[in-house]
Amino acid sequence: ADDKFNMAVMGMNLAMRRNGVAALHGAVARDMFDGLWPAHESDEVPIGHVTNGVHARTWVSGAVDRLLTDTVGDDWHLADAARFGAVRHLDHGAIWHVRNEGRRELVDMVRERLDDDVLDPDVLTIGFARRFATYKRANLLLGDLERLKRLLLDTDRPVQFLFAGKAHPADQPGKSLIQQIHHVTRDADVRHRFVFLPDYDIGVARTMYHGCDVWLNTPRRPMEACGTSGMKAAMNGVLNCSILDGWWDEMSNGENGWDIPSYDQLDGVDEAERDRREAAATFDLLERSVAPLFYDRGDTGVPHGWVGRIVENWASLGWNVTAARMVRDYTAQMYEPAARSATTAASDDGAPARELAAWRAGVADAWDDVEISLEAGDDGDADDAFADGAAGHERRAVVGVRPGRLGWHELVVELIHGPLRANGSIDLGRATVTTLHDGSRESEHVHGEHADFAVGFTPGSTGPWGVTARVLPTHPLLSTPLEPGLVARP
Tell me: the pLDDT tens digits for 457-484? Predict the structure, then answer.
């Protein structure tokens, strides 16, 4: 409510830089907090992203570590995409041997802990281990127990599931999920292939990452901020089968795992129906794609199609899900720019910081005086600017600006053109932004009380195409001209 103190809003207002922990999380955060920047569309709310990563050598097995060391180098956990491409030369037989050893160790650990003859070291093993929050839907497949049993007990291509994890002590719905899974594990027909492992800890997690074949991830999109368990699994050659949420949304390439279709954008579908559809889609993937590929061994006993996906998993993700990549991104995108800004702002006993605060107040007071006009089209006809685009056909635009009480050095002038959404707005994610004046350049156009900026623009595709212009405030200490939330449009 408006009358309640909100820590997130305080943080957003006080920070000069903000980020989500995955690309999709950044997009969701921009939608959530766009009210703090009402002059901007949510696409341009100043919240970026740095995707999480995991400390690779903490989570990989010794055998995988040796494989990657021999192929990529001893510092494989620091390597970039180009160096990680060396995994494409790994012997499939060697990879399959490592995966089989990991699965056997996992089964031995589970049997030792449960004191029972459960799981099979030769059966396709699907793991699910994480916090039991309701949105993660650990029980997604339990809505169709008959289909689940057919999958578990298939005579030619059997599947086994291993669950582990904990719910928050105060999370009763989360605890209920564990109870539902426990109920299935007591079914005499399937208890050997549907297992819950209690007392979840880092040792259990590591062994599951080493030994599972598939890592199942079924959150309600887009509620997963990032999720890192699938990253730890991927480092070990475990293939993700996941809803396109969190980190998987940006790193899946269609060949390094499997994407479970999500129905979050479908109108008129309630939560229960959505769960039913996504459960059916998950069963379809497991029955028609995952299990057949795992058991397709040919004459050699090695499932080359499956191992090929493991190789693609390492080549595309091995360098990208590491903490080293994450720290490099934070350093380049956040820490170094913030350090430079902080050093400048604190110099001269904080005089630049006081100057910026005073400037922001002054700009806000004077902003209504800024005027901008736009003429655009084949012949400068503004009405033609929103006609169907003709790809490759240049059009002309003239942007006129009056700075009012502000100086030209305080303003950025931009032309924006791109395809139109159904609601008539420009799709900023696919738009082209041309800076006509950036506040720092000396130009014959920018002096006095008015300036015209003439520019050509070329639609990139056919169909409805829009063009607009805007003026933003700028100051050397701003992280971005979008920061103050001020914009003048025609």
Answer: 988 887 888 999 999 999 999 999 999 9
Nearest to 139 by CA among 101, 170, 183, 204: 183
Q: Which of 184, 188, 126 is nearest to 157 (CA)?
A: 126
Burial class (CB in 10 A: 0-12, 13-18, 19+), 250: middle
Nearest residue to 248 via CA among 266, 222, 280, 285 = 222
Q: In what order do the strands lie in the sheet with 214-217?
A: 194-197, 159-164, 124-129, 214-217, 239-243, 257-260
Do 251 and 53 touch, CB atoms closer than 8 A?
A: no
pTM of the model: 0.91
CA distance 246 to 391: 35
Residue 399 is encoded by which pair of tokens? 């942007």
Q: What is the pLDDT of residues 408-446, one digit of tens each?
A: 999 999 999 999 988 888 998 889 999 999 987 655 557
Distance CA 337, CA 190 (A): 56
Name 286's Cβ contacts closer than 8 Å, sequence gap at least 6.
126, 151, 159, 241
